[in-house]
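Q: A reviewer asked whether we had any structural model of the full assembly, not just the individual parts. We don't, so I'm hoping you can provide one. Inputs are below.
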Amino acid sequence: MTEDKNKHPEEQVLMEGDPDTTGHSWDGIKEFNNPLPRWWLWTFYACIVWGIGYTVLYPAWPLINGATPGMLGFSTRANVADEIQRFDDMNADIRQRITEVELAAINPTDNPDLYNYAIQGGAATFATWCSQCHGSGAAGVQASGYPNLLDDDWLWGGTIDEVHYTISHGIRNEDDLNARYSEMTAFEGILTEEEIGAVVQYVRNISGQEHDGALVELGGQVFYDNCAACHMDDGTGDQFLGAPNLTDAIWLYGGSEDAIEYTVRNARFGVMPPWSADASEVGRLSEAEVRSVAVYVHSLGGGQ
Amino acid sequence: MSATEEPQKLYASREPVFPKRVSGRFRNLKWVIMIVTLGIYYVTPWIRWDRGPNLPDQAVLLDLGGRRFFFFWIEIWPHEFYFVAGLLIMAGLGLFLFTSALGRVWCGYSCPQTVWTDLFFTVERWIEGDRNARLRLWRQGWDFHKIRLRLTKYIVWLLIAVATGGAWVFYFADAPTLFIQLVTGQAAFVAYTTIGILTFTTFVFGGFMREQVCIYMCPWPRIQAAMMDEDTITVAYRDWRGEPRGKGKDRENLGDCIDCNACVNVCPVGIDIRDGQQLECITCALCIDACDDIMAKVGKPRGLIDYMALTDEANERAGNQKKSVWKHIFRLRTIIYTVLWSAIGVGLTVLLFIRSDIDVTVAPVRNPQFVMLSDGSIRNTYDVRIRNMTHENSVFEITLVSDQPLQIELEGQENNTVEVPVDSTLLQRVYVIAPAGSAAADENLTNFRFWVEDLSTETRTYQDTTFFGRDLE
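A: Here is a predicted structure for the entire assembly that you could use as a starting point for your response.
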């Protein structure tokens, strides 16, 4: 036995019965050239056959417009439509019942199943159609005058029937004749500069904020003559007219001197579309959906 | 490789394996383990366990629809999934422990692939005869005799396979009800599909794939190589004692191995243990039984093939004292695995006994962080989730403890109480209000504690959370 100078000191010893090697050797470790099991090859062929069958039966090969449709007529889009239809059918009964009971009866005690469905469904509908303005948490945006729906101050009423009416018909829109409608006068040019400054201080006073006491008496007179018709003598507003309560801590557009002065000079006109498909042509929501959203909004902490 | 030489085949057909019947202590141990493991698998779903009127009376039940796992007196809810995770980690560590101490004992004795293949071998031997008969049958042409034997064998295999798939689904539904549904064709489609798939895999893996599953499909043999070391007890051949092997009466220049191939003939994976450690070897120890039998017949001591550590071979060859089995097993590595395994086991057991029948999670609603009400007070909202794991409807009272004048209100409920039906979870919207001008209303953060009390059993639990104020600073 001759000593091979190139042989690694720990050269792997091949035994009788070992398979051939590939001829590669790394630090004395040789690579066996084991054949694959035959069934593995069959599995591979079976996959090819399966693949051909699959591309014939199902949508597969990309073409310039679309793809080969496949012989089974399978379509994920059609599947989604079927799924939606299936769920609509499953929900048809409960949606029907939601439109039939009194709104106030959709509560955890009287109708727990309807209440649960309305809360879940209403939350989804709210996220889709309402959150753009009112925010995903329903807290509104004061800078833009989108009302906060969580607090206990309501422009048009916070009972579930009033909330339902507002969602159905919207506010200050021309698509629905039954929309909520209020119009504040822009007092720029109607009131003098002195009167405007005074009424701003008066409103600061009745809402319990810092104010210039010297102007309150004049402001009160201006308020009584020009504002009390809608905002009431004591400034608590009138939900029937959509006139905000000016004495509480909540402001739709802000309670700073600048914000109040801007409102007095220019007035504010927030709008909301009508959502009920039954009430107007532009309405997007079914009665069951409008009712669900109403129940959901009413359950967020401000409902009365 | 010269051009004239036959090029090496890229693909090899499976070499059929015809293990010979063997008896001995390890074979007996394997019988016992087979009976016990198969017994547990088939019988467990039929054990009844009374839990009262509202709950299933099946001892072991994975209720996927109701999201519950029942195990005798233990009930696991989805939020307690860490028990399952803990058990899986224990199973993993246990496997590490056994592998580093005793090699591939899992593979050799209790892996389902091994147990079912063993069962299929038994059926095969019972119908077609032992190794030689089976070899003859395999070589001969198809005639009535061969077709009859093959058909009988496949039918028995198929029955076992159906029973295997069938037993599996009983873990997921009430077994007696499901059995009647299955027989009358009223069970869910998924039950039949599951049985079908498991029947197919059992039949193919146990009857035809056998050792191929271990060699080519299972990752465990590759991982185990990293777990074994020179102290691991495994099945090995005493090379120093057996070689040079040879047949014949004149044994002056020969070792103890008479080259009878008994060890090869009984091997279920078709290897020769005398070649040394091999990836294919599942350490079923049947070669030990076979060789011991032969050694007894030729009047030599047992253990030419035996459970031993790799260091033992070198030790014995040098004539040194053999290290005891316990010294091999108790070493730092196995002790660490044991400690980890036990620590998790003890931890899970303690958790099991201290867990409460009610569970509360509080998620502060932070969109928005707070709401100002018309009187200037500040309100925070919390999603309180109450799980009623007692076995009756319960009324829970939610209160809070704080040094601030915080008030609590429940959406849609009066008296700060809410009823949670038996065995269910309820999401309750809870409002906490800080009066205008109070410290909590004007500070950034105030810590407080929710208490939830089950009024019927007076069990209480709490959750700490925070209140967001206006942060006037």
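A: Points you may want to mention in the reply: The interface with chain A takes residues 8-14, 212, 216, 275, 365, 367-368, 371-376, 379, 381, 411-413, 429, 431, 436 of chain B (CB under 8 Å). Residues 97 and 338 of chain B are 7 Å apart (CA to CA).
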